[in-house]
Amino acid sequence: MTLKPMVVSVALLCALPALARDQIDKSVDVKVDALLAKMTLQEKIGQLHQLSGREATGPESAKRASQLAEIETGNVGSMLNVKGAQDTRAMQALALKSRLKIPLLFGLDVIHGYKTVFPVPLGEAASWDLEAIERSAQVAAREASAAGLHWTFAPMVDIGRDPRWGRVMEGAGEDTYLGAQIARARVKGFQGARLGSTDRIMATAKHFAAYGAAIAGRDYNAVDMSLQQLYEVYLPPFKAAADAGVATFMNSFNSLNGVPATGSALLQRDILKGAWKYPGFVVSDWASIKEMVPHGYAADEADAAVKALNAGSDMDMEGEVYIAHLAQAVKAGKVPQKNVDDAVRRILRKKFEMGLFDDPYRFSDPKREQVVLADPQHRAAARDVARKSLVLLKNERNVLPLAKSGRRIAVIGPLADSKRDLEGGWVVSDVRGDVVTLLQGIRGQAPGAQVSYAAACAPGCANADGFAAAVDAAAKADVIVLAVGETWDMSGEAKSRTDIGLPGRQTELFQRLKATGKPVVAVLFAGRPMIFNEIADQADAILYAWFPGSEGGNAVADVLFGDYNPSGKLPATFPRNLGQIPITYAQTMTGRPVVDEKNIVYRSAYIDSPNTPRYAFGHGKSYTEFGYSGLRLDKATLRQGESATLSFELENKGKVAGTEIAQLYVRDMVASIVRPVKELKGFAKVQLQPGERRRVTFTIDPDTLSFFNGQLKWGAEPGAFKLMVGSASDDIRLDTTLQLQ
Ligand code: GLC
Predict the structure, then answer these.
(1) Which of 69, 301, 457, 466 has the fewest CB atoms within 10 Å, counting from its CB?
(2) Model confidence pLDDT, tens digit, residues 378-400
(3) How far from each other are the two terminal CA atoms of the chain, in whole angstroms?
(4) 422 and 352 share a domain?
(5) May I ask which residue range the UniProt record assigns to the signal sequence (predicted)?
(6) Active-site residue (options: 87, 129, 285, 558)
C-alpha cells in the first residue's frame, strides 16, 4: 500500500470544506512564535506533559510535593482531574511562578454533564435530535467552565458495532452518517462558534481511531480492518469534528493494522495533520504512549517517547515519558527539534485562543461557579433530552400510556428506585446534583394512582430473596412497571461483556411477574444494546431508557403517562443472540442473500437463528401512527455533480401529536466494490398534530451517492441507486430508483 493514493483520496475527502486553519487568528501565530523563541527545550517539553491532579490537589504526600514543584518550574503544561474554581485557581497560581508564566490547561472527562447529568451519549443519540444534543453539550460546557475547566475529553465519536464492547455507551452508535452529524452537534455545543467564551470549553474528538472495532469486542484489543473500511465507516465522524473546529483530538489505546494509534504517523500526520490540515493538538490517551512498550512496538519508554512524538502525538497524558526522555531524544537527534516545536505551537495556540494569557484565572471564579451550578434551567434541559432519548420498542394493545389516576401501579425491580444507576458511567465525582428515580417520577406525576413498590432484588439481582414480596405486590396491582437492566458500572471503559443479557436473575423475576397475568411494562436501563428475548416476546410494552441521567425518573414517567409521546429511534442494532455479533443494518448483500427465511439452504444464513436482529437500527414506536405517501423525485437521471430533490408526504394518522424521525437510505446497486444493502444518508425529525400532513424533502447530492472505492478515492460511480424512505432500517415505506450517468 503506497501512501500517495491514500493522501490524494483524503485530500479529495477534505476538498474545500471550511478548514479550521482559516478560523485561526493570524495574530495568535505571531504571539505563539514570539513565546516559542524564548523557551528552552525543557520548557517546551514541559508544555507536552499532562499531569493528573489527584495527588496534587490531595492530602500532603511526597508525590504531591514533587508534583507541585514540577508545576512551579514549568514542567507541566496541562492537568486533568482538577476541578472547581478554587483548586484550578491554586494550581494556576503555582504555574504562574514559572519563568515564562505559561498558564495551565485544565481538562476533565465531562462526557454527559458536569453537575447536571444528561443521558449517556448512546441514549442521547437515540433522540436523533441534533439541537437537543447540542444543548446538552452546551449545558455541560457552561457548568464545567464555571468550575474552572477549559477542556473536556469529549465527544467520543467512535463508531461502535459490537455491543460486547462496553464503550458503545459513550458514542453515537453504529452509523457513520448519524455519528458524523452528532459529532458536529456535540463539538458546537461544547465550543460554541469560537473558542474563548468563558461559558464554553475546548472539546476533544476521540479515540482516534477505530477503537470501537476492537476484535471480539474486548476493550483495548487490536483492530484490524481494510483501509477502505477505515475511511468509509470510522473516519468520517472524526472528519466532521475536525471540520466543526474541534480543538483537540485524542488518540486511542488500540493498535490499528499492527501499529498502535498513539504511534501511528498514518493517522496523526498523514491523515489528520496532513490531508485534513488539522490545526489543533493531539493528546494521548491515558499513558497510551508508555503502553507502546507492552504493545511490543517500543523497546522501552524512551523509544516510546520518540515514536509517539515523531508520529504526531503532541501531549503525553499521565505517561510521564515525554518529560523523562524527550530532551535526551532531541539531543541525540532521534526527535527533530521541529517536531517538538510543532507540538508546542499547537498547544500554546489553544491557550492563547482560550484567553489564558490575558487572564489565566478567567474561568476560575468561585462566585460564578456557585451561580451557574444552581441554574434550574439545566435540569429542565436534562429532562427534555432524556425524554427524547427514550425508545418505545413495543406497545401491545396500547397498554401505554398509563392513566394517572384510578389505577394500581406496582413499580417493581432493582433499578426502580436507584439513583446511581440512572446516571450511568463516566460521571464527574462529588459534584453531581440529585437524581430523580423512576419510582419518584411515577409517584410525583400520578398522585391519583395507588403506587406500590418492591425492589425484588438489589441492582444486579444476584439473588431472589425479594421476589415473593414483588409477586405479591404485582398480584394486587392493575399494571406492573418493571425496572431492570445493567447497573451503571456494567458499561463504559474496561466493561466488555461476553453475555449482554439481563444481569443476575432479572429474567426470572420478569417471568414470575408475568405469571401473575397482569400487564407488564418493562423499562430497561443499560449503556448498550442488551439481549432480552423473554421480555421482548412476553412483555406488553418495552421502553428502552439507556441511563437517562439526573432527570431520568421524570423523563420516563413523562413517557409512561403520555405527557411526552416517545420519539426515540435505536442508534444501534439489537441482536437476537451473541452469535450474530458483529451485526449491522449496513451489511452487504453477499452472493447468496436470504430472500425467504424459509429457504436458507446454501444461503448466507445460520441454521439456528434468523439473520434479522431483535430490533433494527432506526426502530422506535410512537403512541400514534405515521403514514408515508406521495414519493417524488424531481430528476430520475443525474449527471455527475448534479443534485436531485426527493420528497414525500408524512401524515400523523393517529389521535395524539407525535414526532417521527423519517429516515433516508440509499443503495448503490452496482459498483466497483460491493456496497451495503442500505446506508443512512439523511433523516428528518418532524412533529405533527393529529391528522396533520407535511411534505418532507431530502436533497440527493453527489456526496449522498459517493463512497471510498478500492483505491480510497471518494466519488459517485455511474449506475442505478435505490432511494428509500422509512420509519426504520427494516421499515421502508417508499422507494424509487435514480440513475447517475
Ligand atoms: C481513559 C479513556 C479516555 C479518557 C482518559 C482520561 O482511559 O480512554 O476516554 O478521556 O482516560 O480520563
Answers:
(1) 69
(2) 999 999 999 999 999 999 999 99
(3) 31
(4) no
(5) 1-20
(6) 285
